[in-house]
Write a structure and sequence with these properties.
Helix content of chain A: under 10%
Distance between the termini of chain A: 39 Å
Number of helices of chain A: 0
Oligomer: heterodimer
Helix content of chain B: under 10%
Largest sheet of chain B: 7 strands, mixed
Structural class of chain B: mainly beta
Strand content of chain B: over 45%
Largest interface: A-B, 25 and 22 residues
Largest sheet of chain A: 7 strands, mixed
Strand content of chain A: over 45%
Number of strands of chain A: 11
């Protein structure tokens, strides 16, 4: 059974960089049939897609966050990571990682496996 | 950017009721539309993909239809365990979620 687990600091100071890692177990991150994505949800609000990465390193980003986001993949560790720079209180959210069906032609489509989510609070 | 507009934003219904949620895309997205269920404190769960295909293991009371810009999600007979927030999501151009519909039991 595929499992995804987010990890990283739960508290980040304003203007600093938020860093999270998603560890994938029960399957390979190097599959050609999937993207690996980050989605966030501010408290009491809806879902926002942040971006996705293919095992080869090809990425798609949400245009509204693109200037601050970097997603990377480490196939040797079966992990992918999120960095969000210059954070403010508006970046406080539960951050989810997810497996997204897709390929180099189609891009990410649907999220079929999700991590449990991790709350990141931006505060001094 | 493609915007997704869901309605209603909240809904109260009785057990056994037929429930319908709509999702409108700001431009033609063909059938590149998925529906998710999210219960409090949990990650979203995929219910419907490609507008009308039921994900494996999802009860048949859930269904989806539509193409182009207008889509519908239906629960044929509401059950107590269906209390959740439901989201549509397009993938024709990048990924965008609707704002969600909170479903409550009357």
């Amino acid at each position: 059974q595929l499992q995804l687990q987010e990890s990283g600091p739960g508290l980040v100071k304003p203007s600093e960089t938020l860093s999270l890692t998603c560890t994938v177990s029960g399957g390979s991150i190097s599959s050609s049939s999937y993207y690996w994505g980050w989605i966030r949800q501010p408290p009491g609000k809806g879902l926002e897609w942040i971006g996705s990465i293919y095992y080869s390193g090809s990425t798609y980003y949400n245009p509204s966050l693109k200037s601050r986001v970097t997603i990377s993949v480490d196939t040797s560790k079966n992990q992918f990571s999120l960095k969000l720079s210059s954070v403010t209180a508006a970046d406080t959210a539960v951050y989810y990682c997810a497996r997204q069906v897709g390929d180099m032609v189609r891009g990410p489509t649907l999220g079929d496996y999700w991590g449990q989510g991790t709350l990141v609070t931006v505060s001094s | 950017d493609i915007q997704m507009t869901q309605s209603p934003s909240s809904l109260s219904a009785s057990v056994g009721d037929r429930v319908t949620i709509t999702c409108q895309a700001s431009q033609d997205i063909s059938n590149y539309l998925n529906w998710y269920q999210q219960k409090p404190g949990k990650a979203p769960k995929l219910l419907i993909y490609d507008a009308s295909n039921l994900e494996t293991g999802v009860p048949s009371r859930f269904s989806g239809s539509g193409s182009g810009t207008d889509f519908t999600f239906t629960i044929s007979s509401l059950q107590p365990e269906d209390i959740a927030t439901y989201y549509c999501q397009q993938y024709d151009n990048l990924v965008t979620f609707g704002q969600g519909t909170r479903l409550e039991i009357k």
